[in-house]
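Usage

Read records sequentially. Each one opens with the input sequence:
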Amino acid sequence: MTRIAILLLIILGGLLSACSPTDTSDESNIELQGYAEARLLYLAPRTLGPITSLQVIEGDQVRQNDALFSLDDGTAKAILDQAKAALAAAQSRLADLRAGGRVQDITAARETVMKARAALKLAQDNQQRSAVLVQKGQAPQSRLDQDVSLLDQARANLRAQEARLALIRAPARKDVIAAAVESVRAQEAQVVQSEKALADLRVLAPKAGRVETVLRRVGEIAGPTQPVLTLLPPEQMRIRFFIPEPDLGQIQIGERVALSCDGCKAGLQGRIMFIANDAEFTPPVIFTRKERKKLVFMAEVLPDNPARFHPGQPVLVTLP
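and closes with the structure output:
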């Protein structure tokens, strides 16, 4: 009986030894499963309107400031033309105020002054003749009084016409000119605003990247909350993975990591640029049901070659 027990123990030990896996992996490296995460830019116009043209399709590579799409600009052009006309009118009025009266008005005022001077000369001559006749007793005193009154009126009229001519020649009051200057500035600002509104109807690529999805087509309405397409700049591609809590102390932001995926060439690398401050449970899309009970910290890697990855693609992150 003892021999049988010893034999059974030897056989059981051999089986256990055969079933035990040999660990040939490099325990100094940590391998964590992750996936490519795209931070898309949703591009929309600043104003609401119908789409009139699309210059790109899904998958196109665009450079910064390339045209992407345009909205109807008929109303914006009309508003701009109106603003430019109002600016021209304000500038013309300011020029008139600074220059004084028009040439026609000045000419007419000069002629009126010349007539007033002639009338004064005539009134002076009549007053002198009447004075001589009254002195000789050949005319009544009333005639001299009448001529003196007419002379006073002629002098007053000449002073009034000369003052009117000076007023027409002089530029407008400073406060009136200042108000006109402000009016010109306001109209200039309106023109700039109208030009900006017109330019905003033609949407350009804010960064170089790949057009991922076209959300709306020509003829549909787009607006600030209704984007037309999504754009993926290369620098917005991330490799997202989850660090188990026991390994958190070994990993630092800025650390270089190796990246690998199915069909990808060897040697891909990236840099850890973010580690979450708050822990979470392991996402079921990444780990098994058993491992969901573990606390992990979400982290992101900026790959050296973002174009090598596609959104949602599984990626293995190897930490040194």
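Summary fields computed downstream for this record:
- Residues 103-136 form the longest helix (34 residues).
- Confidence is low (pLDDT under 50) at residues 1-26.
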